[in-house]
Every structure is written in C-alpha cells, then in structure tokens.
Amino acid sequence: MHPDDTAAVAATALAFLTQLRDAQYEALLPHCSDLLISRLRYLGDPSVLKTPGPAAEALLQWQSDTSFTQLRQLSRENPITLLPGFPLFQRADPVTLLAVAGFVQTGPTVAAVVLLREPTGWTYHNLQEFDPDPRSPGVDWWPSVEAAEAGGNATDNPNEEDDDDDDYWGQYDNKTTNPGAPARTASSSALSTGPEDSYWSQYDAPSPAPNAPAPDTVIPARVITSGLAFNQEAVSPVELFNRLKTLSESEGEDETADHTLAAAQVTRNLPPAELAIPPVAGGEVADMSDGPSQGSPPDHQTTVRDALRAMHAMARSLGVSSAAFVDLAREAAGES
C-alpha cells in the first residue's frame, strides 16, 4: 500500500491518536514532525514528556484548546474510529502537504489530528480543533493527495463552492501599459517644452546648499589689516578703496581732523609742501629737519595717492572725465 493512499494515512492517524490517548508520548516522539521537534527542543523540555499531564500535552500542541481533553475521554477499551469523510488533504504551500483526521465532533467543531508529509513519510504535527468543519463546502481540504496537489476543481471536490476570485483578478491580466509612452528621464524632460515637463524639469537641477548665496551675487572679502601694512602690487581699484576706508576707520578719534585736512588738501591738488603736518613723537612736535618726513607720514600719502589714481582710472573706464572726477573728489572731501 502506498503511504499516500487514503487508507494508509487513516491508519497512521489512528496509530498516533492511540498513542496520544494512552499518554505514550515518548513512543510518539520519533514520529513527530521536524517542526514540532524543533519546538520541543527550543521552547520546552522534552523530559516533560515522561510524565503524562497538561505540561506534556502543551508541548505536543501549537495552540491551546480542548482537543486533548476530548481525546482522553475516549474509552481505552474500544479502538478509536475516524469520523466519516476523513482523512482530508491540503497543499498549504509548495513544500507543505498536510492531512487531517477528525475523531470527535461537537456541534460545528471537529477535534482532529494533523499530519505533515515529510521525506520519511507522514509525521505527527498537531492535535487541533477545527471550526468550521474541514468537510464543509468551500473549505480548502481535499479527499485525496492527488486532488490537493492539483489544487482541486469541481470534479475533485463536489463540496467546493464556485467563486469569482479568478474572474476578479483576471481583469487585471488584460490590462497592458501604453507601449508608446516614453520613459521619463532627466534628459527627456530637459528637451521638452510642454507645461508638464517644464514643471518637472525644475527638479532636475541640483538644489543649492542651505544659506548659499545666489549664483550672481558677489560678496567681496573684507580684509582687515593693521596700520599701513599694504601690498601695493597688483591691487584692484576696489581693493584700494576698501583699504583706504579701513585705514580711515583704524586711526582713532585723535587723528581724525589731521587725516580730513590732508585728504582735502590732496583733492585740491595742492603741492606736497602745503601738506606739512608735523608728526607727533612722545607728545611733542618732532624735528622736521631730517628730510622728507614732512606732512603726513609718507606711507599715508602713498596710500592716498595710489587710491586716488586707481579711482581715477576706474572713473575713466566708466566714462567719467578727469575734470568731473576732480569735482566729485572735492565734493566728497567737502562732505567729510
């Protein structure tokens, strides 16, 4: 007899039920499924099976119900019989084949033993209550292994009810995507001029970093130096102007009048002799007899003169005449 024949599976199920009813748990252990053995090893203590009782029964079930209680109530003087229509089979997934054999029915609930097909044959997997009855119409249990393997049809299982699931999902199989719709890429959006593509194209460009200046905004560097430590070589007009401004701000209130007078005299094109401002040394007027140290310190004059020349060149490049530049310089000196 083939082990998958219905009669052979029924005999195996009855043998397992007898061992469970008689509390022969250790004798049943070699016939348990690999999944149940793993549960016994990692979630329980197999030594508990030596002592009949609720603790041992709990290890042989995957859930908690009254199926063991109903099995113990069966008389040991009479052999156990299966309910009509059992065993039934189910292909739970591509690698799992189950069999169920009911032995007690209470109302719509059926207590049954569950077997699992493994390479070595049918093994004990669970003792469980089923509600609804596996024999009920529309329940996915089949009268033979062949019917369960094939997935069942109306001829294999007359109790199965027709349904429209296949028709529901089949309607989506007939829908195809539009083959003429081009895939959206960054390059295609850049070449398109449509309103929708214009909307999406704005996201193709990388976003600027937070707090980053606008691309066309030029932020000149502010150079803060001390005194007259300037490099006069390769300096732009704007930089010279900035240095002149920094110089005027760094001298202090005690020299403001002197620098204002010197700047006014320079803008009026007065000769250097008229710019003589005695330098202060230790609170006294310094000796002016040693040569070209008259007037403002030489570095001050050089800085101012270079700045004016650079500003004059910049004014000429902007179309301002020399006479107009002089007038502007005088006007600025008068306002200061």
Structural features, described:
Residues 173-192, 291-301 have a biased composition (Polar residues). Residues 158-168 have a biased composition (Acidic residues). Residues 149-214, 282-302 are annotated as: Disordered. The protein has 336 residues and is an alpha+beta fold. It has two domains: 6-157, no CATH class; 237-281 and 290-335, no CATH class. It has helices at 6-21, 25-28, 34-43, 54-59, 67-72, 145-150, 165-173, 186-191, 195-201, 237-250, 256-267, 298-317, 322-335; strands at residues 88-93, 96-106, 109-118, 121-130, 280-281, 284-285. A four-stranded antiparallel beta sheet has the order 1-2-3-4. Strand 1 and strand 2 form a beta hairpin. Helix 10 (237-250) runs antiparallel to helix 12 and helix 11 (256-267) runs antiparallel to helix 13 (322-335). 18% of the residues are buried.
